[in-house]
């Protein structure tokens, strides 16, 4: 499968702050790449370079075979960008916004109007189509944002944190829309801070931190890479969490993390650890309401990967 | 610039021939999205640049209508100045004309466009803050369209404001004393002066962070400059150093020209030429500065 997006050795610094420090990645045509990273990891900088908003200091980025710096003019009609930084006009109505974007893609007036109507219907904005965007809810605004990035039917679409700040129902609605787009063959690069989002939407995930790619693969492969399993222990009495932690700390290769009354022990031998944990807890007379083995969540994978990176960078 | 580290799916591919995924070299179809590219004939590029500027101008004009409060205050403020100065200073200020209103009103034309010019900065700063400019930049539109559309819309608003001031003046007893052609010339000249100031504030708006900063920067600069000019009082009545400063101010040039054209306070040609020259100088400095600032803005 040919690559729709090819990035090699991309660097960008703002003054002395390095935003991208040699990023390489590819996105296969028709696939979804999830770009995952904490705030300030360089996700937005990368998207801005790929959408011709920013020029890189070094390295190469090609989309559909076109260089993002050298062939920007030719590339722009084939790209779409939606998300936190490419916004619609607050004072115009949804319909006016879409028509304006169509006109700026140099669609004939009637084609732009027809395209706007189609998108309004498809994104379920009919009731609000002739109201100024200012009064839209967050979810409606994101849908309009996405619609505006699809006016030109781009083969390659960039979504920069498309659901940040949305309530769960709107997020789900947007995910469904995005999944339908992908079914139609759009190549998608999506940045997110939400692992659940990357896990659900992306074929492959690239984890980026401090401007560098620190891991990549499918969601499952990343979980595999961190390795092992997790034993969850839920103590009955919240006051006993610290006691349980000290009792269990010899069983895990890292200090057990806790959230409320739930302790999580990363381990290579899930069942063995579960049995030993049960024995130790019983000996210490700590009451437990739940005890289970599971694979690590992507959140834990992410925290482990980024923490590892910090340790590497520190000395 | 060809690939170094990146290999494309179909092997060596000159820039002019994008491979992969069956993407056609130019527009997918007549009705599809089209870019403005350097290899198009100049007239095609020009036509699209004009169309883009018109679309952005239309969008900005809609903004004026959609913000009734802003529209109200931006018209009330100059009306207030006419009334205040006409009634408070009538008789207190020694002017070459019999009636202070006759002297004042052409100056008020200039004052009203000068005070509104900061709105150009505010509009651009808001568009930058809200990501609208980023959206525009991802589109295959002419790079010139955002600034052209902004300043054209502001020019239209200037014409509206000057006409409104003329209407208020006529209601209060102001009379054009030259002829209708020169009166129209006076209104055009003041609007053109406002257009030049829009480019100054386009630069301010692109270089300041945030709309409020742009707004206050505009006020701090324009307020003293308008008072240190012939807008409200003759330059000759000022202390020497200030008179010297005021006589070099483009605002004085514009006010003198507006006065000569509308009430025949003197021969019209010399002040008009002087004002057109200062407008040309302001544009020659700030159009390139603003265009460069726009290219670099975030």
Element layout with pairings:
The complex is a heterodimer of chains A (315) and B (298).
Chain A: E1 3-14, E2 17-28, E3 32-36, H1 43-50, E4 58-63, E5 66-67, H2 72-75, E6 79-83, H3 94-104, H4 109-122, H5 138-148, E7 156-160, H6 168-183, E8 187-192, H7 195-201, E9 204-209, E10 212-217, H8 219-226, E11 229-235, H9 241-248, E12 257-259, E13 262-267, H10 270-283, E14 288-294, H11 298-313
Parallel strand pairs in A: 3-8, 3-9, 6-7, 7-8
Antiparallel strand pairs in A: 1-2, 1-4, 4-5, 9-10, 11-13, 11-14, 12-13
Helix pairs in contact in A: 3-4, 5-6, 8-11
Chain B: H1 42-66, H2 68-88, H3 100-116, H4 118-129, H5 132-138, H6 145-172, H7 180-207, H8 211-227, H9 240-248, H10 250-263, H11 269-296
Task: Describe, in plain words, how this protein is organized in 3D.
The complex is a heterodimer of chains A (315) and B (298). Chain A has 315 residues and is α/β, with parallel strands linked by helices. Chain A has helices at 43-50, 72-75, 94-104, 109-122, 138-148, 168-183, 195-201, 219-226, 241-248, 270-283, 298-313; strands spanning 3-14, 17-28, 32-36, 58-63, 66-67, 79-83, 156-160, 187-192, 204-209, 212-217, 229-235, 257-259, 262-267, 288-294. Chain A is elongated. Chain A starts with a strand and ends with a helix. Chain B has helices at residues 42-66, 68-88, 100-116, 118-129, 132-138, 145-172, 180-207, 211-227, 240-248, 250-263, 269-296. Mean pLDDT of chain B is 84; it is low at 1-30. The interface between A and B is large, with 56 and 46 residues.
């Amino acid at each position: 499968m040919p690559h729709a997006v090819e990035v090699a050795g991309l660097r960008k610094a703002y003054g002395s702050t390095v935003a991208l420090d040699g990023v390489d990645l590819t996105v296969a045509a028709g696939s979804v790449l999830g770009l995952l990273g904490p705030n300030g990891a360089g996700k937005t900088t990368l998207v801005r370079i790929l959408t011709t908003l920013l020029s890189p200091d070094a390295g190469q980025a090609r989309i559909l075979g076109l260089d993002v710096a050298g062939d920007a003019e030719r590339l722009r009609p084939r790209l779409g960008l939606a998300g936190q930084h490419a916004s619609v006009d607050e004072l115009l109505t949804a319909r006016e916004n879409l028509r304006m974007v169509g006109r700026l893609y140099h669609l004939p007036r009637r084609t732009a109007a027809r395209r706007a109507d189609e998108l309004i219907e498809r994104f379920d904005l009919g009731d609000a189509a002739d109201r100024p965007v200012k009064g839209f809810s967050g979810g409606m605004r994101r849908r309009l944002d996405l619609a505006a990035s699809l006016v030109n039917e781009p083969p390659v679409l960039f979504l920069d944190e498309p659901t940040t700040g949305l309530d769960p129902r709107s997020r789900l609605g947007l995910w469904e829309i995005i999944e339908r787009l992908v079914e139609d063959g759009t190549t998608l690069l999506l940045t997110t801070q939400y692992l659940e989002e990357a896990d659900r939407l992306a074929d492959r995930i690239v984890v980026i931190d401090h401007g560098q790619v620190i891991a990549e693969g499918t969601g499952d492969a990343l979980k595999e890479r961190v390795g092992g399993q997790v034993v969850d222990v839920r103590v009955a009495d919240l006051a006993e969490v610290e006691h349980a932690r000290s009792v269990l700390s010899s069983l895990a290769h890292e200090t057990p993390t806790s959230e409320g009354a739930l302790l999580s022990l990363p381990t290579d031998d899930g069942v063995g650890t579960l049995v030993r944990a049960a024995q130790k807890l019983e000996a210490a007379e700590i009451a437990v309401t739940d005890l289970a083995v599971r694979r690590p969540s992507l959140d834990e994978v992410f925290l482990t990967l980024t923490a590892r990176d910090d340790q590497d960078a520190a000395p | 610039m060809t690939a170094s580290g990146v290999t494309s799916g179909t092997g060596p591919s000159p820039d002019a021939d994008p491979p992969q995924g069956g993407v056609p070299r130019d527009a997918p179809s007549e009705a599809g999205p089209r870019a403005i590219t350097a290899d198009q004939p100049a007239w095609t590029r020009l036509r699209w640049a004009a169309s883009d500027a018109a679309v952005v101008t239309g969008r900005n004009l809609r903004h004026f209508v959609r913000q009734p409060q802003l529209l109200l205050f931006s018209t009330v403020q100059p009306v207030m100045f006419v009334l205040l100065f006409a009634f408070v200073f009538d008789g207190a200020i020694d002017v070459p004309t019999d009636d202070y209103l006759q002297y004042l009103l052409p100056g008020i034309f200039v004052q009203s466009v000068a005070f509104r010019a900061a709105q150009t900065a505010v509009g651009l700063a808001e568009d930058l803050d809200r990501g609208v400019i980023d959206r525009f930049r991802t589109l295959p539109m002419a790079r010139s369209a955002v600034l052209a559309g902004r300043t054209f819309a502001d020019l239209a608003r200037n014409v509206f404001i000057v006409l409104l001031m003329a209407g208020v003046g006529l209601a209060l007893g102001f009379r054009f004393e030259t002829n209708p052609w020169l009166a129209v010339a006076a209104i055009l000249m003041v609007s053109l002066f406002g257009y030049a100031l829009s480019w100054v504030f386009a630069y301010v708006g692109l270089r300041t962070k945030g709309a409020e900063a742009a707004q206050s920067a505009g006020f701090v600069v324009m307020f003293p400059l308008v008072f240190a000019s012939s807008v409200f009082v003759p330059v000759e009545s000022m202390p020497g150093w200030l008179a010297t400063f005021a006589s070099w101010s483009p605002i004085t040039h514009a006010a003198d020209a507006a006065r000569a054209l509308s009430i025949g306070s003197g021969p019209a040609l010399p002040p008009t030429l002087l004002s057109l020259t200062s407008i040309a100088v302001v544009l020659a400095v700030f159009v390139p500065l603003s265009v460069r600032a726009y290219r670099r803005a975030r």
